[in-house]
Design brief:
single chain; mainly alpha; Rna Polymerase Sigma Factor, Chain: A; Arc Repressor Mutant, subunit A; 8 helices; RNA_pol_sigma-70-like; RNA_pol_sigma70_r2; transcription regulation; sigma factor
Amino acid sequence: MSRTEPPFEERLIAVLPNLFRFALSLCRARDVAEDLVQITVMRALESQGSFDPETRIEPWSFRILRNAWIDMTRRRATRGPEADIDEAAEAVGEDGRRVTEARLMVDATEQALDTLPASQREVLILVCYEEMSYSETSEILGVPLGTVMSRLSRARIALAEALGLE
């Protein structure tokens, strides 16, 4: 290594919050997201030898997470539907018009995100929420750069339309 990089484990630990956010955006269930991150960390540690220490760890680890999500989704499809008892509605504990409007907007945005095709939702989450570059997103998803840009454009338009924004 030409420049001094932190050890692999420290770099992996530093990206855990980002991995969790991405996992949560994919599966929409906290416990499943935690399992997904745990699987990702295990796979990353097992595959540490294939990581190039001269590159950023984020795209590499996000790709592992996405592949784990695909594996998990395939397994889930063969098991059938499951109910999450932790998804019970929470009581509103705060008053105020702004808080209520903000919660409604977040809910509407999450619902609108759920209506997007998975390919568009993934690109939108990686670029807009996780602040990955188009190139990194292309690498994570294994698609050409132009595909990333067109999916992102379509996702932004569809999201704006679903939310009634111009």
